[in-house]
Design brief:
146 residues, alpha+beta, 2,3-Dihydroxybiphenyl 1,2-Dioxygenase, domain 1, 18% helix
Length: 146
């Protein structure tokens, strides 16, 4: 198992427009926006009926990205729970592209990490999952399929 690169940081926000404005003011560019829902996103998040809007922000060099996510359902919750779910306000995860998601999950489990939901496949392009590590930190893993 080897990490290929850091893909993006995901931030759950209550006010998507204000968050976009903040990151635009910081110098990031809006790469795209989309509503997201469906069984695959439910499976990745370990939640049912997920409906979100996302805005992908990109650094000027094109290498760094921040995904801003507004949950319409289920509603976002406070960051107070020790084992916060994927719809919790604030910084939720840092995504890493990996060459073997199963090996990565197994390696992290050996250090006490747990899957938040399950490994799920998005179309024919990626296998994805969220893993909760120490202090409740969530990392997302993505394996690009051939």
């Amino acid at each position: 198992m080897a990490i290929q690169r850091m893909d993006h940081v995901s931030v759950v926000v209550d006010d998507l427009e204000a968050a976009k404005a903040f990151f635009l003011a910081l110098g990031m560019q809006l790469e795209g926006e989309a509503p997201i829902e469906g069984r695959w996103v439910d499976r990745v998040n370990g939640l049912d009926g997920v409906r979100v809007d996302i805005a992908m922000m990109r650094t000027p060099d094109g290498h760094g990205r921040v995904e801003l996510t507004k949950f319409h359902f289920p509603t976002a919750v406070s960051a107070e729970p020790a084992n916060a779910l994927g719809n919790t306000l604030g910084l939720r995860s840092i995504m890493f592209a990996v060459d073997d998601i199963d090996a990565a999950v197994a390696g992290l489990r050996a250090h006490g990490a747990e899957l938040v939901g399950e490994v799920a496949q998005f179309q024919d392009s990626h296998r994805l999952c969220y893993v909760r590590g120490p202090e409740g930190i969530i990392v997302a893993l993505a394996e690009q399929l051939s």
